[in-house]
Amino acid sequence: MSRELFREVSRRDFLKLCGGVAAALGLSEVSVPEVAEVLAASSKKPPVVWLEFGSCSGCSTSFLNADSPNAVDVLLNHLSVRYIEVIMAAQGAMTEEVLHETITNEAGEYIVVVEGVVPTKDGYGMIAGRNFYEVLEEVAANAKAVIALGSCSAFGGIPGAKPNPGEVKPVSELIGKEKVINIPGCPANPSWLLTTVVHVLMFGMPELDSYGRPKVIFGQCIHDNCERRASFDEGMYVEKYGDEEIGRDYCLVKVGCKGPNTFSNCPQVRWNSGKSWCVGVGAGCIGCVEPGWPDAFMPFHDRLPDIALPGYAGLRADADLVGTVLGAATAIGIGAHLVGAAAKGKLGKHEASEDKAKTEA
Fold first, then answer.
1. Which secondary-structure segment (H or E) carries 229?
2. Which of 18, 78, 199, 223 is catalytic?
3. Is 18 a catalytic residue?
4. Which of 114, 133, 276, 345 would you label with 54, given CA atoms 20 to 30 Å apart?
5. Which of 78, 152, 199, 337 is catalytic?
6. 56 catalytic residue (yes or no)
7. Residue 257 catalytic?
8. 59 assigned to active site
9. Mean pLDDT for each 10-residue chunk of the chain (361 residues)?
10. Taking the model in full, what pTM does it have?
């Protein structure tokens, strides 16, 4: 491992990192010193075991490329990472000995990060002659918490899509939901992992939603915080990719944006040092943090099923239909918003005849 990997962070950058974590946890500025103490105190470094199962390593790559937080600094200076296959120099029997010592000597104290799905068919994924699911059961047994990082380990993700030949399953289905924290995303945002680890250290298990995700991260609908929301309210949409309206921040729902049915703080934390995110660059949200993704959200560039749009007569939000596919609670919320938009007379710039004809057909 080269010396360039061991980057240092200034005190200013470190406090900025702590401030960001505190804000993500919903804490005031007064709590920043406490967050800093948790991250800085060598005696409080939590042992971490990072298991790499059936995945493309996208989540670990995303985390290692992050500069806010500086992932390398976090891994080397603020967490005691004992085992991480993607970057550890050791291999073979030596790494297995370290793993065994950690789960034996640090029982009840170490945190497990699981990246990737777990095939349940023998031989579809193995480490040191053992199936992934056998390794997971042993390592997770005495862990303080298990973080399922990325959509693959949280919900099955792309490997779990049809036809799923390896009969892969998410982590919680194999070891139970009691101490599993799901941090989905394809890949997961680097800040989500650090925020969750700090929460576990400061307060214990975070409050989770019905899908096992931290509410502090996945508690708000992307649509409600999107910078293109005003265009949605006014009925201004991108009709197809390549239109100049993409650069004008017009709404992307008609070209398949799944933001109205997706819950995360992507619009707030963003990516690439907080400068951009999927919708911001005109790509649209594909719903990668939601259970059932990708199957339930495909085709990615098709509009959400039966979701009414301001300015398009004859369309409605069908909570039963959308709920069956993507979640009724979101659909009901969208339906209520659309009724309000229609009552205010926000008709938009487009004629409704084409969509009305399709609906009638």
1. helix 229-233
2. 223
3. no
4. 276
5. 152
6. yes
7. yes
8. yes
9. 40 57 55 58 73 94 77 69 85 89 92 96 92 96 95 96 94 95 95 84 87 95 93 91 86 93 94 88 94 93 70 38 38 42 37 40 40
10. 0.75
